[in-house]
Design goal:
This protein has eleven helices and seven strands. By secondary structure, the chain is α/β, with parallel strands linked by helices. The structure holds nicotinamide-adenine-dinucleotide.
Length: 271
C-alpha cells in the first residue's frame, strides 16, 4: 500500500544487488511512496546486470561507485544532484562485506589485510559518504540518512566474525557524524539493526540457516523480512520521524530484548 510518504523527495540508495537485497526492496517501496532517487553500487556488482531491471522499474538512473573511493563518492554526490535537480533528502547505506567471512577465516585467525578491507567497505564507507554529502552541502534540511547494521555490534555471535566489529564502528560513526549533521544541517542519522535476512551478504555468514531459525524462534513477532525493513526505512525517510536521530533502532521482532523463549526452551529440554 502506498501513502505518498516520500512525495517530492530525492535520494541516493546504495547496495541493491539483486531482488533479495534490502536496498532493492527499499528502492521499490521508495518509488511506490513517490520518491525519485539514484541507485548506486560497486562497479563489480554492476556487471551482474540485475540493477538495470530495478532502475527501469523505478525510473532511476544508476551511478557506479566503489564506496571506499572518495573520488567515486564525490562524483556520485555531484551527479546525483544534477540528475535529481537539487539537494538530497534521503540516503540509504546498505553495504557490507568481509573477506574473512567469505573465505572462512575465523575471528581468531584473521588475515588483517582482509580485515582492513572489510572495515573500509562496511564501516568507513559510511563516514566517507557522509563527509562527501556534508562538504558538498548536498543534504536538504530535515533530510535523513540511514545505514543498516546487525546486533552482533552489541552481543557475541561468533560466526559473524569481524563484521561484528565493523558494525560497532558503523554505529559509532552514525552517532558521531549524526551530531555534526544535526547541529549544522538539521539532518538526522540513524542505523537500523535488522533481523537475519536471507540475502547474498546474509547467507555468506557460516551457519546462517541456524542463525535465522534461532532468531525466528526467539522473537515474539518472528524475524523481520527485507520488505518489512524497507517499510521501516521509509518511515525514517519520511517527515513523520523528524526528531529521531543518533539512534540504533532494532528492527528484529523483539529479539534484542529476549533472554529465552518458550520455543527455544522446549527444543533445548527435548534433547
Ligand atoms: N542479511 C542480513 O542478515 C542482514 C542483517 C542485518 C544487517 N544487514 C546489513 O544490511 C546491509 C545490506 O545487505 P543485504 O543483506 O541486503 O545483502 P546484499 O548482499 O544484497 O547487499 C550488500 C551490498 O553491498 C554492496 N557492496 C559491497 N562492496 C561494496 C563497495 N566496495 N562499494 C559499494 N557497494 C558495495 C554489494 O554490491 C551489495 O549490493 C548490509 O549492511 C548488511 O550488513 C544484513
Amino acid at each position: 500500500m502506498s501513502y505518498n510518504l516520500l512525495k517530492g523527495k530525492k535520494g541516493i540508495i546504495f547496495g541493491a544487488l539483486d531482488e533479495n537485497s534490502i536496498a532493492w526492496k527499499t528502492a521499490e517501496r521508495a518509488h511506490e511512496e513517490g520518491a525519485e532517487f539514484v541507485l548506486t553500487n560497486a562497479p563489480i556488482a554492476m556487471r551482474m546486470g540485475q540493477i538495470n531491471q530495478l532502475a527501469e522499474k523505478t525510473n532511476s538512473q544508476i551511478i557506479p561507485a566503489d564506496a571506499t573511493s572518495m573520488e567515486d563518492i564525490e562524483n556520485l554526490v555531484e551527479k546525483s544532484m544534477e540528475i535529481l535537480g537539487g539537494k538530497i533528502d534521503f540516503v540509504l547505506h546498505s553495504i557490507g562485506m568481509s573477506i574473512n567471512v567469505r573465505k572462512g577465516k575465523s575471528y581468531t585467525d584473521q588475515n588483517y589485510d582482509w580485515t582492513q578491507k572489510g572495515t573500509d567497505v562496511s564501516a568507513m564507507s559510511f563516514h566517507k559518504v557522509m563527509q562527501s554529502l556534508y562538504k558538498a552541502d548536498a543534504m536538504n534540511e530535515w533530510g535523513s540518512i540511514v545505514a543498516l547494521t546487525y546486533m552482533a555490534a552489541q552481543r557475541v555471535f561468533p560466526d559473524y566474525n569481524d563484521m561484528a566489529d565493523n558494525k560497532a564502528y558503523l554505529e559509532s560513526i552514525a552517532r558521531s557524524f549524526g551530531y555534526f549533521f544535526g547541529r549544522d544541517k538539521k539532518v538526522r542519522v540513524n542505523t537500523i539493526s535488522q533481523s537475519p535476512t536471507p540475502t547474498t551478504a546474509g547467507s555468506g555468514v557460516k551457519g546462517f540457516e541456524g542463525f535465522l531459525s534461532y532468531a525466528e524462534e526467539m522473537s515474539p513477532l518472528g524475524n523481520a523480512t527485507a520488505l518489512e525493513c524497507a517499510d521501516y526505512t521509509i518511515t525514517l525517510f519520511s517527515d513523520l520521524t523528524k526528531k529521531v536521530t543518533l539512534q540504533n533502532l532494532f528492527h528484529d521482532g523483539g529479539f534484542s530484548n529476549m533472554g529465552v523463549s518458550t520455543k527455544i526452551m522446549e527444543s533445548f529440554m527435548s534433547k
